[in-house]
Amino acid sequence: MVVVECPAIPGCISQGKTEDEALTNIREAIVACLEARAEHGMPLTVAVREVEVAV
Q: What is the pTM of this model?
């Protein structure tokens, strides 16, 4: 099982049996999330930044 998410859209997560299936599913989830956020007047995305931390 492969789990994927779109960090710029809070709660936009999907999965698939393979990486290809998971990527196809997240594309569909992104469209659905954007439509739902637009319908509710919510911002479509949020700012995302990556931070590296030495361990």
A: 0.81
